[in-house]
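#lab-general

N.A. 3:47 PM
ok so I finally got the sequence cleaned up, no stray characters, all 230 residues accounted for. can someone with queue access submit it? mine expired

B.Y. 3:52 PM
send it over

N.A. 3:53 PM
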Amino acid sequence: MLIPSIDLMGGKIVQLVQGRRKALEFDNFETWIKRFSSYPLVQVIDLDAAMGSGDNIDLVRELARKLPCQVGGGIRSVAVAEAALSAGAQRVIIGSALFAQDELDEGFAENIARAVGSGRLVFALDAVGVRVVTHGWRRATNVSPLQMVRTLEPWCGAFLYTHVETEGLLQGFPLDVIRPLRSATSRQLIAAGGIRSQEEIEALQTLGVDAVVGMAIYKGILPGFLTALE
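B.Y. 4:20 PM
back already:
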């Protein structure tokens, strides 16, 4: 399954390279809402909230009303997760809140699963090298992606793996990093980070992995998508 991504920063749709350099920026929301409306799931990430530099909560709510969304960015408590779900999100993405002192916080994972239901939770494992990173990809933890999947599987419905080193570069996604994770969990597994072609999406699907795509869509590289300027 292809899951289009809408990343928000400063009230606009953006695409970043490796979470740091802004490469694209748009404010034609209705255009993208229309283009994504036929997809069973769209990913919406509030980058400002993820980085602790504000939020785009009104835009997130609007998108959640108009599109079937899984929403992430700054969701670090049960109350915030419940608010996002009440606003219309189908699922919420949890990342940094799953860690305490750079180690996994199993208690938090269990508590939020009990509060909202594990099926409505996507746990994000953003990786640089062999470590999961948090807080907008700016802090390295002591946890590996494989350790995170094996430990937290009981409390979520899906895992979202982002390969930060290829994110936004359109250099392709390294399939070798996702195979051990697919073998380690029965949960839905979603991959992101540099995916640029239909062939890659199909290769991931063969492995039983869904694909989040951003840059290749907004640049009109994938078949079926016009460029953002058309």
